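Exercise 7.
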Amino acid sequence: MNVEQWQAEYKPIVNHLDENASWQDERGEGSMFETYGEEEKYVYAQPENHVWTYVDGDNGTYLITGRAYVNRIGYFITAKPWTEDFEIQVINDEED
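Solution. The predicted structure, written as C-alpha cells, is:
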C-alpha cells in the first residue's frame, strides 16, 4: 500500500487544532498532529486503532500503526481504524 492508497482507505482527519498543520491535502488542510502539547494530548485521547505515527527510520520515513515514541515525527488520526499492525514507507517523489 502506498501513501495515496492509505489516505483513500483510512481517511486521515484534519488537524482542527492547528490551521497550519503539516501534510496538507489539495484544499490546504493539514492532517498531521504534533508530538507535544495540546495536539499530543488530543492524539492520546483517541482510540489506539485510529492512531498512526510518522517515524524516521534507517531507510527513510514510515507510517506505522499505533502510538510510537522513538523517532516520531508526528501523528495521524484516521476515520477508519486499522485492524492489524503494518507500516508504509513514505517515498518523497518531489524533485529538488
